[in-house]
Design a protein that fits this description.
The protein is of the alpha/beta class. It is built from 13 helices and 7 strands.
């Protein structure tokens, strides 16, 4: 029987959440992933989650309690965004738990279609499913007169190309007080995880990775360094081979139009005031999708505070999966994380940013910036 992890805050809607957790776990466990009309990517994604379903749903329930539990009143009056929703599992649980309005947003339109099909098949449809990134979500919410006051997100933060820009735009999304919980398994504070992820950075940067069956069609699988060099050569065909090699190494972490700008600047003889700010972090040069970016926790808190949020970082919990020995170790670690949530981030499998935008500090802009393209290049 699936249950909530111990030590979570009490709330009047908690009993309904516990019942929704059990019901959704039962329904998804029995579901034939091939019967829902999902894309090949969606089927693979759902089967992956079915393999760790208890952990996926317990994590979703934990984020819901940490986010919605921070706002006053019944969850039936909340408008919740599941950002980077994928199949929308967190949104499914929110809908089953009686959250008033549920909005799903994902950059990948195919994922939005998959989430729509899954929600419809389970009778847990979201109120809105919005393809795009945060500026698209802000515009769509305004057009549909949706006013989110809660946001949850899991394993998305580490892929956002311009994370400071994303955070700066969050106050434009909904009404205050605005509460959010962003969780990421790219936990830079955990030495074991950090070492494994840095090895993965080096591998995809220098060697690439073979495609998996059901991979996203927009993912790059060749070595990122070689892809960057090819893109730079396309934008500055006159650069010498040695210059291209050096520029490709210097621009690790840039993508798209930023790479084009860097190539044109170097071709024109200008200095590029950009250097990678981490020894291994790297992103897909075609899409800007970071490969499990290890974000500095102090920087993350500073960006949220600059946007007007009160923010803290705590450790997330291990799932009750595996044999007796691993489960026992995880219970011990979860106890340590529960007793000292902020000091034990280095023990945790993931970290969670909990942030609130107080009503008194909220000044929702009347319009979005005209130029909302994500960029990581400093001003020239």
């Amino acid at each position: 029987m699936i249950s909530l992890p111990p030590g979570l805050p009490d709330h009047p809607d908690r009993t309904r959440l516990e019942q929704a957790l059990a019901d959704l776990h039962r329904d998804l466990s029995r579901l034939d992933a091939g019967s829902m009309g999902l894309s090949a990517y969606g089927e693979r994604y759902l089967r992956d989650h079915q393999g760790i379903l208890a952990y996926s749903l317990q994590t979703a329930a934990t984020l819901l309690l940490w986010t919605l539990g921070a706002r006053p009143g019944s969850w039936s009056t909340a408008t919740l965004v599941d950002y980077g929703a994928g199949l929308g599992l967190q949104g499914l649980l929110a809908r089953a738990a009686g959250v008033g309005k549920v909005v799903l947003c994902d950059l990948f339109a195919e994922s939005c279609d998959n989430a729509s099909r899954l929600g419809r098949g389970l009778g847990l449809e979201a109120d809105a499913i919005i393809p795009g990134d945060l500026p698209d979500l802000v515009r769509a919410c305004r057009a549909r007169q949706l006013d989110p006051d809660a946001i949850i997100s899991y394993d998305v933060l580490e892929h956002i190309y311009d994370l400071p820009g994303h955070i700066a735009l969050l106050p434009s999304l909904g009404r205050a007080p605005l509460h959010l919980a962003y969780a990421s398994s790219a936990n830079a504070a955990n030495p074991r995880l950090r070492s494994r992820l840095m090895a993965g950075h080096r591998r995809i940067e220098l060697q690439g990775v073979p495609p998996r069956p059901g991979s996203r069609p927009d993912d790059s699988h060749s070595a990122f360094l070689a892809l960057r060099r090819d893109l730079l050569a396309r934008h500055a065909p006159g650069l010498a081979a040695e210059d291209l090699d050096r520029l490709a190494e210097m621009t690790r972490g840039l993508a798209g139009e930023d790479l084009a700008t860097a190539a044109r600047m170097r071709a024109a003889g200008h200095d590029l005031h950009y250097r990678p700010d981490h020894p291994t972090n790297t992103c897909d040069p075609a899409t800007g999708n970071w490969h499990e970016c290890l974000v500095s926790h102090p920087n993350l808190l500073r960006w949220f505070e600059q946007a007007g949020f009160q923010a803290s970082i705590r450790g997330g919990y291990y799932g009750a999966i595996g044999g007796w020995g691993p489960r026992t170790v995880k219970r011990i670690l979860n106890t340590a994380i529960r007793l000292a949530p902020r000091r034990s981030v280095a023990l945790a499998p993931c970290f969670v940013v909990q942030a609130s935008l107080p009503a008194a500090d909220h000044r929702r802009p009347s319009a979005l910036p005209v130029h909302d393209r994500a960029t990581r290049l400093p001003p020239s």
